[in-house]
Amino acid sequence: MSRAFRAAPRRAKLRQMDWDTAEEIKRHLNVVSEGLRSEIRTVAEGLQGFREEVAAEFKTVREENAEVKAMIRVAFGEIDFVVDRTTTVKR
Predict the structure, then answer these.
(1) CA distance 79 to 84
(2) How far is CA 49 from CA 45, 54, 55, 65, 89, in A?
(3) Higher-scoring residue by pLDDT: 62, 76
(4) What is the per-residue pLDDT for 61?
(5) Which of 7, 27, 68, 91: CA 20 to 30 A from 74?
C-alpha cells in the first residue's frame, strides 16, 4: 500500500474534525457576540439616561444663572440710583 493511500482516511478525518471545530467555534462566537450586544445595549441605554440627567441639570443651572443676573441688574440699578441721588444732593 502506498503512503498516499494510507493517509487518505486520515486526511478525511482531519477535514471532518476541522469542520466540526469550525462549527463549534462559530457557535461559541455567536454566543459571545450576543452577550456583547446585550452589554453594549445596556451601556448605550445608561449613557442616554446620563445625557438626559445632564441636560436637565444644565437647564436648571441656566435658569438659576438667569435669576442671579437679574438680581445683579436690580442691585446695580439701586446702587446707580443711590449714587445719582447722592451726587445730585451734594451739588
Answers:
(1) 8
(2) 6, 9, 10, 24, 60
(3) 62
(4) 96
(5) 91
H helix intervals, 1-91: 3-90
Q: Please, which pLDDT band fits residue 79 given cuts at 50, 70 and 90?
A: confident
Torsion of CA 56, 60, 66, 70, to 10 degrees: 160
| Whole-number Å distance between alpha carbons of 63 and 72 | 14
Phi and psi at 2, nearest 5°, equal -80, 160
Q: What letter represents residue 66's amino acid?
A: A
CB burial string 72-83: b at 16+ within 10 A, e below? eeeeeeeeeeee
At 91, list the grid cell.
451739588
For the range 53-58, what are the long-range contacts, defined as Cβ-Cβ under 8 Å and sequence gap of 24 or more?
none
